Task: structure prediction
Amino acid sequence: MSKKNTFLTNLKVHNCRDDICLSTLTTYGIGGKPLGVIFVNNHQEYIKTLYSISNRVPYRILGKGSNILANDERLDFFIITGKYRIVRIFRDERKIRVFSTSFTELQYFIKLLIDNGISGYEELAGIPATVGGAVFNNAGIKNVEISDFLKKVTFFDRKRKSIRSIEVDKTFFSYRNSFFKQENMNGNMLDLVSFVFEFPSKNITDKNKLKQIYKDTWHKRIITQPINQKSCGSVFKNLSNTPAWKIVSDLGYRGYTVGGAKVSEKHSNFIVNFNNAKFSDVINIIQKIKNDSLKKGINLEEEVEIWK
Ligand SMILES: Cc1cc2nc3c(=O)[nH]c(=O)nc-3n(C[C@H](O)[C@H](O)[C@H](O)COP(=O)(O)OP(=O)(O)OC[C@H]3O[C@@H](n4cnc5c(N)ncnc54)[C@H](O)[C@@H]3O)c2cc1C
Result:
C-alpha cells in the first residue's frame, strides 16, 4: 500500500484509486493521473469523505467531466466523484418540489421529470452533465437554464467545515456562471451536495408532449453537433451579440487541425479529439483562435474549464 493510501485510510477514506487517468473520466478523453480518484458510492459516503479530507488534502469534485480539459501530465490534487443517484418528487396543490443529489445524471433527472409530466427542462436534452455540474456552471441553452426552477442548494463549506443550505433565485446565476463557481474561483471552496427544485403546478402537462420535445431536441443536436466525437461541447462563450461559432468560423478555423485535435466542421465552437489528442493540441488551437480574434478586437473567453 502506498504512503498516500495509508494516509487516506487513516482518514477513513477507503475507496481511492491512484491508477486512474482523467482521460477515462472526461468526455474529452484527455487528462493525466491525479493524486488519486475517490469514488463515493452513496450520499453518506460523499458527505463523510468531504468532512474527512477537507483542509487535509487538495481535491476537486468531478461530475461527468463534460466541461473539463485536463493536462495530460500528473495533476496535483485528488478527485472526488460518484455514480449514485437520488431523486425524490413531492407534490401539493400549488407546487411540485423535486430533490436531487449532485452526482445524479442530468439526463436521468430530466427523464424522470418528463415521466411525471413535469415540464421545464425537456429542452436540456443531450447535455451530458451531472445535476451538480449543471448547477455549478448554470448549464443551459438559449432560453432555458438549470437555475430556472432551482430553489435551494445544500453544500459543504470547506473553510467552515460544515454543511449549509441556501435559498437561491436567478440573481445567484448568470450565463454559464453561478455564485458557487464564483466563490470557488475566489478560493472559498463550496462542494455541492444536493438541490431542491420547485415547479408551479401549472407545469404539469401531457408527458407525451414533453417526450416529443425531448426527442426533437436530441435530434437537433445530432444534426448540428459532433456528439459522436470526444469533446467538451462549446469551447468558447458566446458574446452577447454574436455566437462564438460564427467568430471561429469567420476567422477560417473550421476544420483546422493540430495533432489529434480539430475544430469541428459540423460546429465550429467544438474542438474535437479525433485521434488521441494531447492537452497541448487543444490548447494550441484555443490559443491561436484567441490571438486571431483579439487582433479583430474580439475577446473570446473559454467556456471549457482548464485543469492544470
Ligand atoms: C457534447 C456536449 C454538449 C454540451 N452541451 C452543452 C449545452 O448545451 N449547454 C451547456 O451549458 N453546457 C453544455 N456542455 C458542457 C457541459 O455539459 C456543462 O458545462 C455541464 O454543466 C458540466 O457538468 P459536469 O457534471 O460534466 O461537470 P464537470 O465537467 O465534471 O465539472 C465542471 C465544473 O463543475 C464542478 N463541479 C461538478 N460537480 C460539482 C459539485 N458537486 N460540487 C462542486 N463543484 C462541482 C467541477 O469541479 C468543475 O469545476 C456540453 C458538453 C458536451 C461534451
Notes: The mean pLDDT is 96. Helices lie at 3-10, 43-53, 106-115, 131-137, 179-185, 207-224, 244-250, 279-295.
